[in-house]
Amino acid sequence: MIVALGSLQREAAGIIRAGNYTAVDAPEDFIAYRPESPDSPAIVLSGSGSERAARATKWAIDEFDPEAIISFGFCSATKDLERSGDIVIATRVVGLPGTPFEWSISDDTDSLAPDKSLLLASRTAVEVSGLDFHQGTVVTVSKLAITSGSKRWLGQALNATAIDTEAHIIAVVASEFGLPWAVVCSVLDDRDFDAPKIIDRVGTGPNERGVTAYIRHLSNAPRDLPAIIRLGRSSTRASASLTTFMAAFMEAHEALSKVEQPLETS
User: Fold this and answer.
1) Fold adopted by 2-265
2) HEC string of the chain?
């Protein structure tokens, strides 16, 4: 079984609808689903941020005893040509500690590379399904970069292809347990888009925010309405891309596993 670890309900909604899943009791306010078919991954949603993702990954490994881990979800673009709904495949993940004020002086990064077989399955999935995609470094930050300037800086200074708030720690925990892993995300906000502060959910749970939260935000920042509408549309595209990708990835992984098994036994 493969476990797919994400952060928010919106990221996994299409994947869950497309499969046959049973809800599993999970600790804290994590959300988990067990697939009825091996053709689908188990889904665990931790909420946003590395601390939550670390705890959820350890619990998921104990609960499902997976053969591999895939980190999936939304990300922010750091390159000019990336658009919402594009898939980003991590060829390495980097953890960038501290706040945005400390990034320019920080050299305490930890770089990890994904499993080659899972990376090949990911590349096969996007090519077969016709998804627009990019490959490169995914940088995990402790506080989401919401301004175009900070996203642009991360793209230039670290050669980041995208940024998120969970992938690196998921890779760290999977590596500690000796499990192969991969990181695939879907672009939510373009590099040159200044996102409203409400997008930063680090430390919060996986459940979707209700309308009340957005009304409250808009009462204090009414000029954010066009940006929030744009994010809603981008979220729909990003979620649809993840749904398409995951189905193609599971098929590609199964096909590659069948090819690799005879090679291992010969």
Assistant:
1) Rossmann fold (3.40.50)
2) CEEEEECCHHHHHHHHHHCCEEEECCCCCCEEEEECCCCCCEEEECCCCHHHHHHHHHHHHHHHCCCEEEEEEEEEECCCCCCCCCEEEEEEEEEECCCHHHHCCCCCCEEECCCHHHHHHHHHHHHHHCCCEEEEEEEEECCCCCCHHHHHHHHHHCCEEEEECCHHHHHHHHHHCCCCEEEEEEEEECCCCCCCHHHCCCCCCCCCCCHHHHHHHHHHCHHHHHHHHHHHHHHHHHHHHHHHHHHHHHHHHHHHHHHHHHHHHC
